[in-house]
Amino acid sequence: MEEKQEKLLLIDGFNLLSRCYFATAYGKELHQLQRNSKGLFINGLRAKIQKLLQLVRIHTPTHLAIAWDVKRNETLRKEKFQDYKGTRNELPEPLIQQYETAVSFFNNLGIPQFTIPKYEADDIIGTFVQKWREEKGGECMIYSNDRDLLQLLCGKTSQLIAAKKGEIKYTLTHFQADYGIEPSQWVDVKALLGDKSDNIPGVAGVGEKAALPLIQQYGNVEGIYNKVDELDEKYKRYFKKLQLGREMAFLSKDLCKIYTDVPDILDLNFDDIQIKVDRSKLLDELSELEIHVRVG
């Protein structure tokens, strides 16, 4: 009998839960959101569990980990830049409750999940990707719509991005065809563009029309600033903007770069995240929450 190929599935926990929550809460008042008989909101959680079970059915991973964010004011990036994620709104209470219910649900089932002080879910995922690449070499899939994670792509690491019909399995080949650079250079593009959702400044006045071509031509942020006095004529209109934005460019690159050396993950044994879910226990936990989804 042929041995099953080892395959790792990494879930960006809050990215999935929040998308499930807002998709099922759209246009509804608080009292219209689905709750169970105990009064717990379950609208987003039900959709998240359904999606997770579907992903396991379709992609048959041997290993699984869910990565959660810490509070946004408790991260290393916040220490480096006080305005990091400073424009985000407070989360709705039903979403916070469902996060807490989800953590308890996965704990009860022994499904590996990780929240690590000062690090974000992206960093946990990034370290898993790097460690898996070095120690296992099998396929690795990241489930998230966060395009910051594209910097982690390689020949055996892809990203599952939700689309209107199912997911797109976005690979290294897709990335190279779309952007004409390597995934490691994605952080340099983001350093110039910034990121409104995370309140990362980037270089003021350098938009999408210039950011990608600059990196394609000069390789990275360092390459641009090494040649800033002799830039190609077609970028002359950005000369002053790049000069004024130098400090912000390097700060933004630092903020956008995903850590791949989170100590708690580096010390982990991959045997600890093998999928070993007991079906009857899963059914019991779903019944306890009054969540009805297809299992198996």
From TrEMBL:
Protein name as annotated: 5'-3' exonuclease
GO MF assignments: exonuclease activity
Keywords of this entry: DNA-binding, Exonuclease, Hydrolase, Nuclease
InterPro entries in alphabetical order: 5-3_exonucl_a-hlix_arch_N, 5-3_exonuclease, 5-3_exonuclease_C_sf, DNA_polI_H3TH, FEN, HhH2, PIN-like_dom_sf
Function, as annotated: 5'-3' exonuclease acting preferentially on double-stranded DNA.
Presence of keyword Amino-acid biosynthesis: no
Segments forming domain 5'-3' exonuclease: 6-276
